[in-house]
């Protein structure tokens, strides 16, 4: 990070310091994160795992969040329709908006906003992990993995509120909560810092939708931080739908720990924003812990979708499976870099990475890169990465049956995503992908007419 | 219905068709035979509009219209159907969905409303029975994991549902056992009629025992070297292709 950018962040923080809720992140912790940021800097495209991210836009961002009072002038109609069975918790520019929310009515499930409840903001485990990471930075030993958390520190500095989801031991809530983050301010005016902490007790089951949208202005700067803790034997289906504004710059850092015999499925659907960068760090810390990472990225026109996943197998017999499918149209770029690390004690690890990109525009770009680091024997790891165009033979077959070219291409794109989308069991989310694909097709047809 | 005159076509640097002429009238069944590599599939592809072929000379008209000027999807909607020699697998695109989209595209072309989903399924089931296809086919991807014979039967099923005016079947018989061959032949025969025509590309005359052609042509060196009636196929079976090739040379 340039000194100027560090300075800017520091000044922005000083200006709003007193209005930042201590219940969300204590002033002490904010200071720490600020110092760590100043020391390590924000990533630049010269950094190993940030080559494809669009970081230039950071220079034009006003880093401080908007006024501490949440906006209440957003009509319900400006928000996406509610999803059957899921209680909605809405956060506007990172702050809980009760009037746009409903309350979950399941015993053992609670969603709290430390800003409005004044409750202590973070679970002990998240706080401990974050503190350890920051100490490492201060001591000068910044492991590569941790340095990818830098945007999470930025969130820590400015966080205005948090959605804290607690699911008690053994609670069963497979279609449970939707957390909706709405960004309304243009990047030059204010930033939005969504925060989500999910703690799932032992042997519980949770289905949660995390959704990012825009209202009023679509040129937002959003920097989200998400922590997930999946306790022993628990099962979590975490659906993430990124529908940020068409001109938005969107960052997110997700870290998750999966304990013994637990399974965490993360379904990521990236549709929106001009530039989106996601950083995932999942640690399989207990024996037989499992991760399913399922990613669909649809980028068109000038959009950039960049993803980096670090999956750490720490305990024996843990299992991870990644399926990433990206389609880039127009002059868009989809990049996904996935790194699996098998630590010393993780014998019997089973890991699969399948990263596939589809070029759907003459100037589109796909970069998919699987990486593997193994520090033990007796593991089963396989990975594959492909980037290519639509299959001409398939296309001709459909055309020869009389199907319109646009429709045929759309069918093949859908087919390309099918094995990932088929696993998304929330129909609403599937519909959004479908609509977005259709939109992409219309767009290209419309552009063709103009040229 | 179909009139090909002096057609010259090449793929890459290779000239495949050189001066092919053929006329197919409504109600007729033509068989095109010929040794491997003689250009049979090329002809079928050129008629269906597959990209990758350069046509340097000649004309093809369909009902008096310039067929070569039409996009492949337009040709299909005008009633041209190609049964592929090697049908491609398209995992993720459902078989029935493809069929329905194809039927609706044709209906739209004719100014008709979309087909009723219930009626459509009933129709597909009926045709599937004729082709002895398993119910599980309905939920599978296009040709996904189909055996060679199943793929060929699926091509005929599509033809039965789409009811084209001109069916071009490229070696639909190859790789079929005798039972499957009879099923495929029955499918083709069920569509035969005064307003339809077929071009059967085949390497062996076996299929022609069941779908008896009005005309048989031998393709050698990119043009039709010999034409005759159904008995020509039997003669070819007996004597092989060499004598035609020699006579043509
Ligand atoms: N894509 C291609 N590139 C180069 N040569 C080709 C291609 N397709 C066909 N050919 C050649 O054209 C000739 C005719 O092929 P084809 O029409 O498939 O013959 P047939 O169907 O009669 O066996 C063959 O010599 C074949 O090798
Ligand atoms: Mg052939």
Structural description of this entry:
The complex is a heterodimer of chains A (451) and B (249). Chain A has 451 residues and is an alpha/beta fold. Chain A has two domains: 3-286, no CATH class; 390-451, no CATH class. Chain A has nine helices and 20 strands. Chain A has a ten-stranded mixed sheet with strand order 2-1-5-8-10-12-14-16-18-20, covered by helices on one side. In chain A, strands 3, 4, 6, 7, 9, 11, 13, 15, 17 and 19 form a ten-stranded mixed sheet that branches. The model of chain A is unreliable at 120-125, 141-145 and 443-451 (pLDDT under 50). Chain B is globular. Chain B is of the alpha/beta class and 249 residues long. Chain B is built from eight helices and twelve strands. The model of chain B has no long low-confidence stretch (mean pLDDT 93). Chain B is 37% helix and 29% strand. Chain B has helices at residues 40-48, 72-78, 95-109, 117-130, 148-162, 178-191, 230-239, 242-248; strands spanning 2-11, 14-24, 29-33, 53-62, 65-66, 80-83, 90-94, 141-142, 166-170, 197-201, 215-220, 223-228. In chain B, helix 5 (148-162) runs parallel beside helix 6 (178-191). Chains A and B meet through helix 7 and helix 8 of A and helix 2, strand 7, helix 3 and strand 8 of B. Adenosine-5'-diphosphate (ADP) binds next to strand 2 and helix 1 of chain B.
Largest sheet of chain B: 6 strands, mixed
What is the succession of H and E elements of chain B? Answer: EEEHEEHEEHHEHEHEEEHH
Instruction: Kindly state the number of beta strands of chain A.
Output: 20
**Overall pLDDT confidence of chain A:** 88
Q: Rg of chain B to the nearest angstrom?
A: 18 Å
Distinct ligands, ions and cofactors found in the model: adenosine-5'-diphosphate, magnesium ion
Number of domains of chain A: 2
Low-confidence stretches of chain A: 120-125, 141-145, 443-451
Bin the strand percentage of chain A. 35-45%
| Mean of pLDDT of chain B | 93
